[in-house]
Amino acid sequence: MNKIFPLMLAFFGMAASAQQIQSMETLLNDKISIRAIELYDHKVWYSGTDSKFGFVDVEKPGKQKQMILSEKKLQFRTLGQDKNFFYTINIESPAEFFKIDKKSLKHEVVFRDTAKTAFYDALHFVNDKLAYTFSDPDQSHLLKLMVFKKNGNWTQVTNKVALEEGEAAFAASNTNIASTAKTVWIATGGKASRILKMDLKNNTFEIFNTPVIQGESSQGIYSIDFLNDTFGIAAGGDYTKPEANINNIATTNDGGKIWQVQASGKNAGYTTCVKIKPGSKGKEMISVGDRHISYSSDFGKTWTKISDEKNLYVCEWVDQQTVVFAGKDRIVKMKIK
């Protein structure tokens, strides 16, 4: 059922100076966990648990459709798109790469990774002709990065990037890869939480340490977003301690080489997704964790919790006044002013 909830400042604990929430509307209710969404044709497209894939219209929630891509009850935590197709990969081994036609919604498996260690954490399109996805490493500890090019084939990127013992990534919101026209950034976590920066011109890597909390398998960067080739934001924490808020947010002003911790001890805690507001030149951004929605109006330096909504994991800006969130059993649209 479609529900619209007028929000009261006291209920959501908003500060007077914070971004104000005008309304929240539940677009989809279902027994599903969603950690990857895409916007296309005025709809929120999603992939999730039990092999579910579908959409709901942003303005007309009654207009929705859901499909089952496999009888195996796969868990999808990735989703990407080019001009004509959607793509999603399940997290278990064997990892199956699904391709879904945007017009007919016919789907097929175009690649299988049968390695026992296959666990794909994020799928990201740089443009219509180029995409990357990466998996947890195998026994070699080398970065396992797959590239999709305009011919539609997936191939492994040859590289010598060695991950540390216990360093991998989190399939929390499909947002630990970011890109500009020149660069791809990948965020890792676990025993080490670093930024892997790849130059798209020659496919060379630079690796940078970060001050984000790390050292345990549950700690590190969960999400990154970049405004341009210089300014970026990283957020995460420890999913076993969702209220812990020390060294879980950082920003960079030099393309990922040096990161500055922001709002340590002064934010809402564990964060799974962060997104820069379009048109704000990086000044404004929104973040979500499983116990909060938070907002920054000063380039990520300070944060205000604007909602106590729980069990939402991923977000995306529809426009400058509208954000959609997804998570456990629902998709939600927030209007802000």
Main sheet, how many strands, which sense, barrel? 7 strands, antiparallel
Helix % is under 10%
Q: Which regions are unreliable across 5 or more consecutive residues at pLDDT < 50?
A: 1-17
Shape: globular
Q: Could you tell me how far the N terminus lies from the C terminus, measured between alpha carbons in angstroms?
A: 25 Å
Class per helix and strand makeup: mainly beta
Q: What string gives the helices and strands in order?
A: EHEEEEEEEEEEEEEEEEEEEEEEEEEEEE
> Roughly what is the average pLDDT, rounded to an integer?
94
Q: Strand portion, in percent? A: over 45%
Number of strands: 29
Please work out how many helical segments DSSP would assign: 1
Rg (CA only): 19 Å
In short:
The chain contains 1 helix and 29 strands. It has 337 residues and is mainly beta.
Could you please describe the fold and organization of this structure?
The protein has one helix spanning 9-12, and strands spanning 3-6, 21-40, 43-48, 52-57, 64-68, 80-81, 85-89, 95-101, 107-113, 120-127, 130-135, 144-149, 154-156, 167-168, 177-179, 183-187, 189-190, 194-199, 204-209, 219-226, 232-238, 249-252, 260-261, 273-276, 285-289, 292-296, 304-307, 312-319, 322-336. The protein is mostly beta strands and 337 residues long. Strands 1, 2, 3, 4, 5, 28 and 29 form a seven-stranded antiparallel β-sheet that branches. It has a four-stranded antiparallel β-sheet with strand order 6-7-8-9, with no helix packed on it.
